[in-house]
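Journal club side-thread
Mid-discussion, someone asked how the predicted structure for our own chain would compare to the paper's figures. Pasting it here so we can look after the session.
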Amino acid sequence: LLASAKRQWNPTGSLSASGGYSWQTLYNIPLNRPSTSIQEAPSSSYTNNSLVNASIGFNWYPYLATRQPLIRSQKAALDQQRLLFIVTARDTILDTQIAYTAVQKGLALVKAYSDIVETDIAIVDQIEKNKQAGLSSEADVEQQKAQLYQDLIRLINAYAELDAAQSSLGKAIGNIGSTYIIPTDKFIPTGSWDVPLDQTIRQALELREEIKASVQLAESLNWNARKILASYLPSFNISAGFTALAANGIIAQELWGLSPSINKQTTTTPTIAANLTWNFYDGGVNMSLARSQERLAQQALDTARLQETQISADASTSFTAVSYTHLRAHETGRNL
């Protein structure tokens, strides 16, 4: 659309041609008169013509009030589409990363609970042997079996979470089917976020394309409103054309082959004109349309402000969650 808007600067051309053939017969029969005067003899004539008409024309608007606002409106709309594409790409990458990490975590949990279950089974077997030797009671055996059942439930849940994570990863990368994706690297937390909260929020507001896309939408709508209002201004165009008409035929030829009259005619007409067009009043239709576009632009700006608030809240929540996770990981490692 932006390219088509810019091409309004180019002149336009048109070419037309037409041809035809005409046949006309004229009968002249005088009426009888009661007098004794000499009667005019009946006569008949026809006209046989072939015509060819061709014309070519060019038109150029050196001044068109709606052209530049349209170009800027389409440019802002294109920038918005680019930003929305970046948002979609970023969301796809983020979904893939989250699903991949979830699969890594699921594999680690399955491995950990599998080892725990194997250990529980070994402990149950040992307690059974101790019971036979009189070193353990039935209560000890049942208590350890209860622990085994709990760990088995955790292992089953870990398998279910792994299956869901693998399905999410397949959906994120477009691999829908029964084939599971197994990451080759292990789930190892790396790096830390050492940026303070206020700088984190500021960075989020600067990098998130949703806000910029809403602002570009508002700019596009405002320029579209200006384009509509510019339709009330006059436009100026220069036009040039050339027309050629060729006729060839027989005119007034007597039907019985008398008095031939051959007609050949060629006419050429070059034209050049400068035109000023001004539609200064349309009942207020375009004025209403422009105001509607301005209201939509204001709505887009309001959306941008809401997005700023939401992104600030999301950044603050994520910052707190990361800090809390690091703290829990540190405490858990120290307890181990």
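Post-session note: The beta strands are 12-28, 43-63, 235-254, 262-277.
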